[in-house]
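User: I'm preparing a small set of examples for a lab meeting where we compare how different chains pack in three dimensions. I only have the primary sequence for this one, and I'd like the structure in token form so I can line it up with the others. Please keep the answer compact; I'll paste it straight into my notes.
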Amino acid sequence: MAQQYKRLWITGLLFFIALGIELLYIKSYPVRYFISPDGYLYSNIAENFLQGKGLMNTANFAEGVNHVVQAFPKTRDYVIGPVYPLLLALIYGVFGFKSYAMVVMVLHGVLGAASAVLAFKTGELLFGKRYGWIPYVLTLGYPLFAFWGMYVLTETTYVLAIWLFLYYSVRYAREISRPKLTTLLILGAMIGVSNLVRPLLLLYFPVLGFWIFWMKGWRLKQALRDFMLILFMTVVVMSPWWIRNELKYHQFIAVSNYGSYEFYLGNNPRTITNSYFVMDQPSYDPAVKARIDKLPLLEQEKEYKSLGVSYIVSHPVLFLERTFAKEKNLFWQPVSPEEGQAYKMKGAFLDKWYLLLGLSGIILSIIWLKKYSFLLLYILYYSFIVSMITVVSGGRYRLPVMPAMILVGSLGFVLLLQGAGKLLRRPGRAPRRLA
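Assistant: Understood. Below is the structure token output for the 435-residue chain.
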């Protein structure tokens, strides 16, 4: 019991240290928050929920002259994953509507600190209790986690969801011979929750199934049992949202009802692979867009999705070449000094060093492939899926893969410390006598 209280005390101390660092970073900015059209949309949905209108938007938002975001009458009903709007509603219920600064200070500060604690816990499981502080420090030191937490956006919430997913993946790997039922169910729940923030793990199950099958020593029956329990819990967590969407919109909507245009931008004969300002580039056929823009919004989504899928099926080799080009030129590119200055980031130059650290860890982890395979598979999956879907910059959209990069990057520090420890523990040799 005393040991348990000690662990709780240490966890609480780590949390409040992390929270203090998060708040110091937030206070270092001359502004109290950043908000974009997406942020206003999330906020609008949260306000409507508190007013009893449900999780729906009553206005649309766009960036106008001088980058000022303006509201205009609703032209479409956006369906957005419910987790982040509900968290905003919680903050608004306590501090009042449009309390954006409190979203950043309270919600994002607490979630960011919780992510650091989970980095510590995951590091303990993965490397041993003496080394949990390494991913903890690296998480607090990565500047883009804090920077994007200044925005009223899903980034901080989604990063926490990914840390939970990785933590329970480690627990499952440690229990692989006889996994606990609670570990399997919580892992499935974490996948479901992460999808209800942003649906980027929806396609992860083939990768997960392969990993479990391999970890089980190719024993199909045992692997299938674990996989089905994880999948079952994911469905349980997500099904209320599916039922709600079916009742309200009379169609199956897994998480969101938009994004097909971005998918088309990323997958058509004119797709560019080296610039993410897609609206300013010849990355789509104007005639095709003009035709589709005349259709009802729901039909536009279906048409853009159909065109993107058709392109992939018709040009599989070119599709792969373009996706890997987007990974190389965009997803894995560090934040440039120009981009950091334009966004007024602090410490953006560290991004390239974190990427190099993660790359070195990936190379080292191949030596112990089975132990670190879940991290490598997740990194490969996520970078491919994001690059496949659309044309995006690495700085923001790479954020959810950085927890895995920090974990593999921590491996080098662990090996150095372990090596130093062995040298210090070696018994001293008697000095040789001079003749």
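A couple of notes for your slides: Residues 13-174 form one domain. Confidence is low (pLDDT under 50) at residues 429-435.

User: Perfect, thanks.
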